[in-house]
Amino acid sequence: MSLASEFVSIHQGGLVPALMRRSTTEPLWVQRTLIGISWVFMTVFLLVPLASVFVEAFAKGWALALEAITEPDALAAVRLTLLAAAISVPLNLVFGVAAAWVIAKFDFHGKSLLLTLIDLPFSVSPVIAGLIFVLVFGLQGWLGEWLVGHDIRVIFAVPGIVMATIFITFPFIARELIPLMQVQGIEQEEAARVLGANGWQVFWRVTLPNIRWALLYGVILCNARAMGEFGAVSVVSGHIRGQTNTMPLHIEIAYNEYQFVAAFAVASLLAALALVSLLAKYLVEQRVKREMQAR
């Protein structure tokens, strides 16, 4: 029997699959240990703190918690948080799609630099990002005198909060789309152009359907980050009650003033919004899995 025939017989006899199973499957005790460690870690560092927020929020009754959420300063913080997210997410959506399209579909000078700049908010502290805006738009900043002369307020006002939120969140959508669009290549777009489709038709009928779930996933992450941003917004807001305090800033002020019910009540609302985002993220992931299994 030749060496090749012997190898085939061994493979068909099941020796190779058995070796592969033994080399890729961990013992049951190892699996259970790793799963247990994961659950303990998640319970201690995520589930218990999250549950404690809701317990403390409603420890003295639903009426006090509801009153803390509906008082004027808290409502102003909620409105400002939603406003910042409502402005920053659509702008980052446009930027993310445009940046991903350019990086994935074209070769040009400065491509690596653009990728590096997209990742900049991940490497820069949010506090430093806020200070950058103060140095540019603050009273003593580069554009401070011009802004004062034209009665335009950026720092310690809503525009500064929105700009800081945009800066912190703009990588999320682009970074979700770039790897996917690079893997997809340009063959489908080129085929559509050959068949006579123009640029907008190619985007709406070919590119967008292929990236819709990754795009939605990026939007969910971007929105969650926008609502929970603290560091950069804290620097540029000025902490003006009822005007420039977002929900995280309102929580900090209430906690520092020993208004624990108010702090945890608003924190529970912010946590609820985060859980809604998490649920939306999970639903998108399940939809993607079902589509992949159906193919």
Description of the structure:
The protein has 295 residues and is an all-alpha fold. It has 16 helices and no strands. Helix 3 crosses helix 16, helix 4 (62-70) crosses helix 16 (260-294) and helix 12 packs antiparallel against helix 13 (199-228). The protein is globular. The relative contact order is 0.13. Mean pLDDT is 86; it is low at 1-23.
Helix-strand topology string? HHHHHHHHHHHHHHHH
Poorly predicted runs: 1-23
Shape descriptor reads globular
Mean pLDDT: 86
Strand count, sense and barrel status of the largest sheet are: none
SS class: mainly alpha
The DSSP helix count reads 16
- Total strands: 0
* First-last Cα distance: 42 Å
Helical content stands at over 70%
Strand content: under 5%
For the CA atoms, what is the radius of gyration? 26 Å
Explain briefly what this protein structure is.
This protein has 295 residues and is an all-alpha fold.
Q: Can you give keywords for this protein?
A:
disordered N terminus, single chain, mainly alpha, 295 residues
Helices and strands in order:
Layout: H1 3-13, H2 15-24, H3 28-57, H4 62-70, H5 72-105, H6 111-118, H7 120-123, H8 126-137, H9 144-149, H10 158-169, H11 171-184, H12 187-194, H13 199-228, H14 231-237, H15 247-256, H16 260-294
Helix pairs in contact: 3-16, 4-16, 5-10, 5-11, 5-13, 5-15, 8-10, 8-14, 10-13, 10-14, 11-13, 12-13, 13-16, 15-16
